Amino acid sequence: MIKNYTRKMLLSALIGFLGLTSLNAQVMLKEIPLAQQIESSSLVVEGKVISKESFWNADHTNIYTVNTVEVYKVFKGQPATTVQVVTKGGTVGTMAQKVSPSLNLDTNDVGVFTLTSDAVDHANAFRAYAGVQGFYKYDLNRNVVTNPFHKMEGVESVYTEILSKTKSNFSEVLKFDALELANKAAKSAKVLAPSSITYSPGEISAGTESVLTITGAGFGSVKGSVGFANSSDGGVSTTYALSTQVLTWTDTRITVEVPSLAGTGVITVVDANGDLSTSEDVLIVSFALLNNNNSGQAYLAQHYGDNGNGGFTWSQNSSFSANTAAAAAFLRALDTWRNETKINWMLGEDTSETDSGIDNLNLIGFSATLPEGYLGETIVYYDSCNSADWVVAEVDVLFTSEENWDYGPNLPFFDIDFESVALHELGHAHLLDHVIDSEDLMDFDIGPGQVTRTLSSTNKEAGDIIVAKSTTNSVCDYQLMTLYSGQLSVEEDVLESGIDLYPNPANEAFFLKKASSINLQSVVIYDVNGRLISKHDASNTSGVQTISLSGISKGLYFVNINSDLATITKKLIVK
């Protein structure tokens, strides 16, 4: 993929003088200008989310969440003290639904909503026009307003932008002085905020229960919160670990599990008084796995043998398969994932079904009814027999029929590369989340002419974790997934046949014996939840290498063995 960091930084510096930073197109999104959002909305309000509740639609095929918003100002439409904003996805009982991209609101989120009244299955409710683009979120601690395509310096700058479009003043429903709150936070931060923030390790994965240790001063004795660069918008906004993910907190030391939406960027520590400070150094997040957040806990899900034969079967809508170029591009993307990670994905018969929902189909198709600006949408449905173990029940992937796609296989010039987007969306179906790395296929950002049609070593590492968990970790009565039976690549076959891991089960250590023709690079050990346990340099190994298991508890682990040409995964039992 074309490197974008330098171009983005120069663009940001140039237009930053205007107080409005414009960002590049997000994967599966095209920008809907604020003027169009306001013109097409029936209601534009400033407000705060005060409660939320998930529900099934009337057909019991999709889960939605109704977010009750306390209204402060009305820029367009009829004044009201509260409005209900319906978003896609949520959890009801033992079923959950995650939609990408989707507007995910948290209680106490404050900002401006551009709303339209055609919400699904909920009387007197609204939806955000253009989905994730229909909410301009305030970060009062930093005095900024963020949106997938914009970052406005100064929370009151959004008023100026909106009023320049509406040509009329707003109506105040409830007093809320954003500037006063931002100034108070800034003044307090100058003298009371945490300081001297450092952390280890410097590189980590997200959504895998991997633990980051943060040291510094002035954290306080009462637990606050820890923020990370939000991978879903390239780090424009901050995403915070759940309270349950903040494991320990003292005045000088914090341990925290890195949440699934964390991307490469600085670390933010917010104390119990709301005062914050950020690290000078950038944390590298190499990959992220999707989590299902339920009742304040984050859970890593897995696949299972959904089709009764140890695999997972996709069905193309007949109009999608009739577009032979699109179907061929999708199949190339499907083959890339299943050949590289051995996820047992199969392609079944076509279907006439066009809508997403729980219907015993894993649908691939075009849609003319996606939210405004969406290039596509991936919907993952989870099921469980208890609160902790979640499996993927179904997945639907829809692409807009309105886009002038480039289907390849030649490289595109000015259009969006369909295969790259399909590979990215199948990454979500595989249970990978976004990263912040312009050369990685799971990066949130893609533009016309950009191409990413191969997996990186970290993509494969993440995929291997999910496949290993899905093929070995029995959940309730769900059938385990089996490995895709496609042929190993020549490089994988050489590595598989040239490596011997023993003893297994092991106690204090195990040994790796390799053929002389193999050039090992590293050995990485993960637990069944995908959490990194240890990483070992193997580049100087000659003959046999000893891998210590000191400090590792009894249980099942996965050992990724990386050569200069391939990666294989072996199961290890520690007794």
Features:
OB fold (Dihydrolipoamide Acetyltransferase, E2P); Immunoglobulin-like; Collagenase (Catalytic Domain); 4 domains; ten-stranded antiparallel sheet; 9 helices; 37% strand; Secre_tail; Ig_E-set; Metalloproteinase; metallopeptidase activity
Query: Percentage of helical residues?
Result: 10-25%
Structural class: alpha+beta
CATH topology of the largest domain, which one? OB fold (Dihydrolipoamide Acetyltransferase, E2P)
Count of individual domains: 4
**Architecture (CATH level 2) name of the largest domain:** Beta Barrel
Shape designation: globular
Overall mean pLDDT score? 88
Q: Characterize the largest beta sheet: strand count, sense, and whether it forms a barrel.
A: 10 strands, antiparallel
* Radius of gyration (Å): 24 Å
Cα distance spanning the termini: 44 Å
Per DSSP E runs of 2 or more residues, the count of β-strands stands at 36
- The CATH class designation of the largest domain is Mainly Beta
Q: What percentage of the residues does DSSP assign to strands (E)?
A: 35-45%
Separate helix tally: 9
The unreliable regions are 1-26
